[in-house]
Amino acid sequence: MEKNKLVIIGNGITGNLAALYISQKLPELEITIVGKTDKPHSVVGESTVELSTHFFEALGLGKLLEDKHYHKYGLTYYFKTKKDPNDPNYVVHEAPGVMRLPAYNLNRFTFDNDLRELNSKRNIKVISGTVKDVSLKISTRKHHILTVETEDTEKTNLMLEADWFIDCSGTRRFLAKKLGLHKDPGYQRSTFWFRLKNFDRNIFDKISALKPEHHCYDSYYVTHHFYGKGYWIWMIPMRSPNGKTMISIGYTYRTEQGAETVKTLDDFIMTVGKDHPIIVEIVKSGEINTLSENMLDISAYRNYMYESKQYYSKDGWFLIGDSAFLFDPINSLGLSYVSHMICQVAAMISKDKAGNLSESYINCHEKHIQSILSLQDSWGKWYEIMHDPVKLSWTLLMNNMSYFNVLLPAFMNGAFLDGRHIDVFTEQFKRLPVEQQGPAYPFPKLLDILSEQATNIDLACLPNLYSKNIPFSLYRADEKLRKKLFSRYLFRLITLRTALIRRIHWKLDKRHLSILFSAIGDNCLDMMRILLVSLFSHDLIKYHKPNNPDATPFGKNGTFLKFNKTPE
pTM score, two decimals? Predict the structure, then answer.
């Protein structure tokens, strides 16, 4: 009998996004979601980036996003110019204009409910209950057998057969716990967050922002980031269902890097007030949102990060989203990598259904996850420099440049599903043991000198170079553009390095001259790389031939987000 039964464990955002995508990409599958009816609880993931919203738009969620959620005009960074907490001056790095690719600040309660409602109108079965156990398929049994306890008053037990099942159970981590797959992360973090309503947003105007002037958008509608020793703060405006002002505020930290533990709102006010009293003033002007009559919208997680030893199996089970690992929210990339994982699983199911799924193709995607976790290791090390605006600001410039010129085009074109791209990508972003990892910031020797010499924190020291780093021509899948953007990335390495060189007051001593000549040599090497990419292309932007076992089953030029229209 042909394989066609898929069970998704979890009725949250990850499970419903997976069901929506797979039901459109592989409409012949029988898809069942098993999960409890949502009870009031705090969630995160309000700030989306261009990658995840590109995925959402392809799934047909564009109207929901436009009608019910705020446009988000990038990630904005605030760097204090003085150590005096009462000084309102900040160097502010923000997007120089509106990109063709949109992003949104979500009200997750609204979005998640609408997503479930949309899936209820599709050919997707939903069972309200909890998966209590699973018997994995073996040679004598062709299906996984899942034991489900229904949510009705009788607590009936159902037995479900599945050719494949995806664990989207979130922090419950059903399968990881059953199979003993828990793994400690490279770097641990803690977090505290809440949602505030009815506050005075005009208090933001008390910030004296040093930034290029523009009239492109209201700078309130971004994801705001503030920093301190070993911690950072997010502030995400969102549209509440009743139209009242609402904002998500969170504090993520590493105590071993000097941050203070925050467990309560009083802790937050006391700690944050030492560095950013304007944030405290905003908090005191409003009131905490409520999830229910007796439940405030406040959460705190201590040492909440985790990973898994394995994520995908040729036997037909997969861990994605929070059931697999937790993301540091610092770059708002949690939902964007969920988008990656959903498509990876669909590609593996498609190959398995056709009888040509290989261990090597599964291993490709396992390697891809490890490369993403290597990036997360880098973000974990950022906490070491969050009190240093020079090192942190240039690090964020570099990070955004890599995202817009390499990661985002690879997703939009579907290259991340092809083993040839993955092999090169994973070599470029190879995960190393913690003790072997280098500095948390790029161009370390140059930034060490600039940080030592920086007596004034201003736009000259912390230039906003996003207008040069962000490719405004990027808005759709385009393989030729992807090649150009990779060359652009290499060229921007040269220009960033050169910008640093020009800002340093060089001395005629051994250390300075050695670093200067080394930086000039690196520029020459990158220029050679640009020439080679222009003449001969690069494996990072190539694909396997379709008959290769590690080739993507969905083709290139963004075809993984193109669907055959079938009647519901």
Answer: 0.96
